[in-house]
Each structure stands twice: as structure tokens, then as C-alpha cells.
Specification:
The protein is of the alpha+beta class and 394 residues long. It has helices at residues 2-9, 21-24, 117-125, 127-135, 148-152, 161-200, 255-258, 310-318, 321-330, 341-345, 354-392, and strands at residues 17-20, 25-27, 38-42, 58-61, 66-68, 73-76, 87-89, 99-101, 105-110, 155-158, 207-208, 213-217, 226-227, 232-235, 240-241, 244-245, 251-253, 266-267, 272-275, 284-286, 293-296, 300-305, 348-349. Helices cover 36% and strands 20% of the residues. A hairpin with an 8-residue loop joins strand 19 and strand 20. It is globular, with a radius of gyration of 23 Å. The mean pLDDT is 93.
């Protein structure tokens, strides 16, 4: 932290120049793609909240949409995607390759000798920029969009190019470490899944998930219970992200309310949460190792294992193709699908003996314990990066 404080003190912001975004960046730069030809496509669903990297994309026939190259920033312009932190940096294309994406993207590109591409990405991630973009939204309820002209006129202090590059280098070092840990977690989960499949290949689905875990639904807080500050955080369905639970971007409750809550609604590092309604139904995530006071909101459930490692077996099964199909088919309600705790517990499961369950869980648990530890480290790195972001773009 001392090095970061020393760096911030060396920035000499009094030498920075006030500019409009449209003067130092290209917004939705013109590119050409041939219609009905196949190109890489990034859909809105391919962007993960508050994540720099684009981890997935499709190959589709081009018939319109935002066009971009490596080094461009993709900014969601529609609610609630912008509020949810969908902003990404493109770096997965070949040299001179052009790809396309959702019509709901705004594309930002640096201007040579004036702005740095990574610096522009972090500007778009800054709190002030996001607040201005969100406030500019117009349109019908639920379909509000950012006004491009407001972004063109967005004013901010721009440092000299060499300082921009240094700032981007330091911020990118945090995101690179975060990316490495995310990749490690994906590898660890893949190894755990391979073991689980090895043991379950020739087993019959003659048991149910409820034999090894119980699902506890969250507490039905009232809207008046929520506040923007405090020590006690509330985990909602929106906090299930990237297979990890976002425990930072939360609402809070008054400590007087938490004092009367049953401890069964308290959430800890290593817990596994389950989305029980709407578009997030079946979505699951692991709570990072942390020192926060966390409570579970309604529409979200937590898996409570009946022996050590049971929740990890249930997680692997419920996130499989079979588990997801079961969840979708068991859900009720057309406009807003819902699934009950009992329905989840009734999901068919493999008929393992008690000794087999103990053996599998003892082999799989270390993978998940490392995932939980890595997730805690990701949380710390994100917090440090965001403190730096706030200090630079205040």
C-alpha cells in the first residue's frame, strides 16, 4: 500500500488537462463487415460484471451490431447491464481482426498520441463516469439507454500520455492477477468435475440431492430494511456472479434488524448459494473467504451439507447439464419461473454408498477449499484496485 500511496502522490494532478471524452477518444468508431459472413460475436451475456477480460464469444453471421478491434472498450449502454458493471476490454482478436457484438454496446477507442487504450477502459470503469452515464439514460421503463452525446461531452482530467500508460500498467497488474486466479479456479473446478464424473459414470440416479444436502431459503426482508451503508450486508440474487458471490456491491441492513434474525440466514465464506427465481434461476456461486457480516435475502438459497464436502458434490451435480435441465423443468410460473427448496432437494442423484460419498468428498474438497481461498484473494485485489481507481478518477 505504501508504494501505491507514493505513486498517487507523484501524479501531480495540477498538471492534468480538463478535456471532453469526445476530444480524446473515438466513440463507436466506423468499421466495415460484410453482411451474412461469419465473424466472432460478443453478446451481452458474454460480458461478466466488473471483469476486464472477455472470456467467451460466438461465431455468427453478421447482420448488424457494434463493431470493434483489439484495444477497444465495450460499454453496456442499456439498463440494468451498465449498472451491473458490464464493461470489458477487447484483447482476444487477431491483429487487424474486426468482430461485432450487441447493438447495446458503446465502443470506446483511443486516439493515437493523445489517449491510452487501457486508461480509457479504467476511465469507463470509474465511479464518476458510470454515474454520469447512468444518469443520462432515457427511454421506457426497463429499456433505458445511455445518451451518446452526454458521453461525448463528459469532462474529466486527462494526464499526459506517459502518466496514462503508467496508471494503466499498475491497474492492469491487479486485473492480471485477478484473471490468473479466476483461471486457476476454473481449472480446479474442472479437476473436481473430472473426479466426480469418474465415480458417477456407472451409477444409477436412484437417490436425491436431499439425501446429502438441505437447501435453506433466504429471509424475506422488506424494502424499507435496506440502506446504503452499514456493517451487515445483504446477498441478493444479483450478487451471484462468475460462479463467485459478489459480497462488495451489496445493500446493507441496520444492525438492530440483524440482531433479531435467525442464525440460519447468516452466510459465511465457502457457502454455496443458489438462484431460485427469474432469469437467474439455477445460477450458483461460492462465497469467497471474507471477514464480512453477510445475510441471505429471499429468492436465494444456501446449500447446507449433511457431511463435510457434501455441498461440493451437490454443486457439481446441480451445475451439470442434467442438473440444470432438472431445475428448468421443475420450475413453475411462466412470467417469473420459481423453484422451491423441496424441488431442488428432490433432484435425482447418484446412488453412492456412504463410504463412496466419504471417499469422493475427501478427494474433491481440497479443490474447492483452494477455490474459496483464491476467491478471497480476488476480493482483496479487487478492493485494492478499486481504491486506486477512486483515487485516480476522483
Amino acid at each position: 500500500m505504501e508504494k501505491l500511496e507514493s505513486f498517487l502522490q507523484s501524479l501531480h494532478k495540477e498538471q492534468w488537462q480538463e478535456v471532453r471524452l469526445g476530444e480524446v477518444a473515438e466513440i463507436n468508431p466506423k468499421e466495415t463487415l460484410r453482411k451474412h459472413y461469419l465473424y466472432k460475436k460478443v453478446a451481452m451475456d458474454n460480458l461478466e460484471p466488473y471483469t476486464k477480460k472477455v472470456y467467451s464469444f460466438g461465431i455468427e453471421s453478421f447482420n448488424g451490431g457494434a463493431k470493434f478491434r483489439n484495444g477497444d472498450t465495450l460499454l453496456a449502454r442499456i439498463t440494468p447491464c451498465l449498472e451491473n458493471g458490464k464493461t470489458a476490454f477487447v484483447d482476444f482478436l487477431q491483429d487487424d481482426e474486426i468482430a461485432f457484438g450487441s447493438t447495446e454496446f458503446i465502443v470506446l477507442r483511443e486516439k493515437a498520441t493523445i489517449s491510452d487504450k487501457d486508461f480509457l477502459y479504467y476511465l469507463a470503469r470509474s465511479k464518476h463516469f458510470r454515474e454520469v452515464a447512468i444518469k443520462s439514460m432515457t427511454g421506457s421503463s426497463g429499456r433505458e439507454r445511455v445518451q451518446i452525446e452526454v458521453l461525448r461531452d463528459f469532462t474529466f482530467l486527462l494526464p499526459p500520455l506517459t502518466i496514462q500508460q503508467k496508471i494503466a500498467e499498475i491497474l492492469s497488474s491487479f486485473d492480471d492477477k485477478i484473471d490468473l486466479l479466476h483461471r486457476q479456479n476454473k481449472t480446479l473446478e474442472s479437476l473436481a468435475l473430472t473426479l466426480f464424473r469418474h465415480y458417477s459414470t456407472y451409477k444409477e440416479l436412484d437417490s436425491i440431492i436431499g439425501d446429502i444436502v438441505a437447501l435453506q431459503s433466504g429471509y424475506a426482508f422488506k424494502s424499507k430494511d435496506f440502506q446504503n451503508f452499514g456493517k451487515d450486508r445483504i446477498l441478493k440474487i444479483k450478487n451471484i456472479q462468475n460462479s463467485i458471490i459478489d459480497i462488495i456491491n451489496t445493500d446493507f441492513i441496520n444492525e438492530n434488524i440483524s440482531k433479531i434474525l435467525d442464525s440460519k440466514f447468516r452466510i459465511f465464506g465457502g457457502d454455496i448459494l443458489f438462484g431460485m427465481t427469474g432469469a437467474e434461476i439455477g445460477k450458483m456461486g461460492i462465497v469467497p473467504k471474507n471477514n464480512e457480516t453477510l445475510w441471505l435475502n429471499q429468492r436465494v438459497g444456501v446449500l447446507r451439507g449433511k457431511f463435510k464436502g457434501a455441498k461440493y458434490l451437490a454443486y457439481l451435480h446441480l451445475t451439470s447439464a442434467f442438473g440444470f435441465d432438472y431445475i428448468i423443468n421443475a420450475a413453475s410460473g411462466s412470467a417469473q419461473p420459481n423453484i422451491s427448496a423441496k424441488d431442488i432437494e428432490n433432484c435425482p442423484f447418484y446412488c453412492f454408498t456412504e463410504s463412496e460419498l466419504q471417499s469422493i468428498s475427501s478427494q474433491i474438497s481440497p479443490f474447492f477449499e483452494k477455490i474459496i481461498q483464491n476467491s478471497g484473494a480476488i476480493l482483496t485485489l479487487q478492493a485494492m484496485r478499486d481504491i486506486l481507481l477512486k483515487a485516480i478518477f476522483a
